[in-house]
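Shall we go through a protein fold together, starting from nothing but its sequence? Label the sequence line and the structure token line clearly, so we can match residues to local backbone shapes. Would you write everything just below, so we can both look at the same thing?
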Amino acid sequence: MGVRMALPYERAVERVTAALKDEGFGVLTTIDVQATMKQKLDVDFRPYVILGACNPPLAHRALTAELEVGLLLPCNVIVYEDDSGAGSVVAIIDPAVMFGVGVSPALGPVADEAAVRLRRVLAALATP
């Protein structure tokens, strides 16, 4: 699931973080891929961040249903600068697809709710 935004990268990250918050998700982790590539490999890479987003009530329900679901948490959201350098791309994996990978059927309703919320995040980002 994804959306292109006519915003510079830094502003896009701010908007994504705010839209996640509006749907009850906090950002637990931030991985600056560009900085990591430079530090570890001394290579240049486009501005790119992986945000580990978590909705605590949904995470609690998921972990209560299946402890191993922690392997799939938090929900990763990526934001990166597009090829033009003037816009950004946001992508989120569909939790219903991700949770369908051999885990408990009890996770279905949790994954579905998370997917609905994350789709609303993308819809909010698609409007200027």
User: Anything to note?
Assistant: The chain is about 45% helix and 25% strand.
